[in-house]
Structures are given as C-alpha cells and as structure tokens.
Amino acid sequence: MYRFLMSRQWMILTLIALLLIPTMIRLGFWQMHRYEERTARNQLVTDALAAEPVPVEKLTAPGHTVTSAERYRTVTAKGRFDTENEVVVRRRTNSDDEVGYHALTPFVLDDGKVLLVNRGWIPSDGPSQTTFPKVPAPPGGEVTVEGRLMPDETTAASGIKNLQGLPDRQIMLINSEQQARRLDARVLGGYIAQTSPEPKGDTPELMGNPGKEDAALNYAYAIQWWLFAAAVPVGWTVLARREARDRAQKAAEAADTSEAEPAAV
C-alpha cells in the first residue's frame, strides 16, 4: 500500500523533510540564544540606569575602555567647559529623525584631566555643512555635570566611517584617544551623554534614555521555528496517507470496472 514511498518523488520529499526538521530546531535554539543575550543586555541597561551616580573617575581613566557593565552608568564631574576646543559630531539625528550634529565639549576636571561631554543634538545651519554651526554656550565657570557614561565610538561598533578631510572642528566619531591627541591632554576613556544641567533654551537637545532591545520577539521566533519543525512530520504523514488513500481508491475503482466488463465470447 505504501510502496509509492520508494518512488523518486517521495524519496526527495522525505529527504527534504528530514533536512528541514533539524535545521528548524537549530534555528529555534539560535533565536532562544539571541533572546537570552538581549535579555541580559536589557538587564544591564536597567541596572545601570537604576544605580546611584558616582564620580566619573571611579569608573574611567585615561586609556580606559568602558565595559558593557559600566555603559549607561550615571556619573558626575566637577570642573569647567572648554568651549574653545569644542567640536561637533556630524550626521546625528534627534528624536524626530532630523539630521544635525552632536555638540562635544571638553570638560576640564579639577585635577586637570579632560572628560568628553556630549551636550546633545543641535540642528544644521541650512544646507551647508562646511561652516561650524551655532552651538549654544554651556554654563560658564565651575559647574557640576551629570551624564550617562558611554564607550568610545568605533567604525566597527557603529558602522560610521571615520571620514578624513572634514571641515575644521567637525568629527564623525566620539573617540577619547583621538581627542586626546587633538587636545594634547589626558582624556578619560569614553565620554558622557549629558543629562544635567539641562540647557536653558531648546538646544542642545539632550538625548533620551537608551532604548531596550525587543527580546520577546526572539522568544516568539524560537517558538515559531520549533512549531514549524513539529509540523513537518505531521504534514509528511498527512500527505502520505492521502496519497495511499487516493491510490487505494483508484485501484478499487479499476477493479470494479474490470468486474463489470462482460466476458469475451
């Protein structure tokens, strides 16, 4: 009754089914692994945002690489803004996806070290990107700033190309090593995204809290792949039984037709 399973068509179909099952199972485990990774990263963000502020030099120093556990930690620093050495970071967007700049201002600490402070987003001055845009001045004199600690930006991590030959005081990436060479100073590793004090005007526009990755989506994909894997043998069985039933029905009809024909004289 099931000898048709040895046909070329059914052998190919069976082979495809046998290949699909482990492939879908592995894809499900891969999605579950992505779910666990994203959940862990989300937890790091939650823990960092909930932690009490600490002085910046407790977490970073010149040449230090900010770790994933230190990222987004709220830090404080006391010193003064060095607006003469301020630069802008090109091709940055705000919450409305408008393209402009980030204002990056060196902040000289009381001990002489420099902290890079991303003071937020500012709009472009028209279509020209060769002139230095108007950047609202930060508070003068000695102030205390607060912000979220961020790692140095690299092309590998951000996908942003570090273009050369840019207009004066314009950069593509926020990188403490590059700024240390430019300023000829001891620059703390990473930078901070300023959260306080808030600007008096509309700009710079402070960056909002970091978004969290949609880990639940990966969990749903994992379940989906495993359901697909379970559906393959079910579907194969349904097709095989239907084929067997159709063949049996055709054989029965052929037998009935043969019996109904009159015998030759």
UniProtKB/TrEMBL annotation:
Keyword field: Cell membrane, Membrane, Transmembrane, Transmembrane helix
UniProt key word Membrane: yes
Membrane topology of the entry: Multi-pass membrane protein
InterPro entries hit by this protein: Surf1/Shy1, Surf1/Surf4
Localization, UniProt: Cell membrane; Membrane
Recorded GO CC terms: plasma membrane
Signal peptide, first to last residue: none
Tree of life domain: Bacteria
Residue ranges of the TM segments: 219-240
Family the UniProt entry places it in: Belongs to the SURF1 family.
Name of protein: SURF1-like protein
